[in-house]
Design a protein that fits this description.
The chain is mainly alpha-helical. The chain has three domains: 53 residues, no CATH class; 31 residues, no CATH class; 32 residues, no CATH class. 40% of the residues lie in helices and 7% in strands. It is extended and about 50 Å long.
Length: 116
């Protein structure tokens, strides 16, 4: 069984599981199904079953500990293209600009130490 990991670690986790050699790993199967209607698994094309990408709005028991993170999906009826990113004035927002001032030096140091 594989489980979901935070996005920032998922690519490295995927690579590690693929390198083991004892798992069939599938890259972004749900995203590919939603976007293109198919994905490839072990060299075979898998298409979405009719109606598999739609559902009745409902909560799920496994979401209860982190229910607030899943509120949008619980209220949804399927996949849909979102409105995109809103324009945000980070410098003009006192909270966001504070976060930026605090965190940017750390990101700059990570960038300076990156592998090339």
């Amino acid at each position: 069984m594989l489980w979901g990991t935070p996005r920032s670690r998922s690519t490295a986790f995927f690579r590690m599981m693929a390198e083991r050699g004892d798992f069939t790993v599938v890259h972004e199967p749900f995203s590919y199904l939603a976007e293109f209607g198919y994905t490839d698994v072990a060299g075979e094309r898998v298409t979405s079953a009719p109606g598999a990408l739609t559902w009745a709005p409902a909560d799920r028991p496994e979401w209860q500990p982190s229910r607030r993170w899943h509120a949008g999906v619980a209220a949804s009826t399927g996949f849909a293209r979102g409105p995109g990113r809103p324009d945000v004035d980070v410098d003009g927002d006192p909270v966001l600009s504070g976060y930026l001032r605090h965190h940017l030096p750390f990101y700059e140091e990570l960038h300076a130490q990156r592998l090339t």
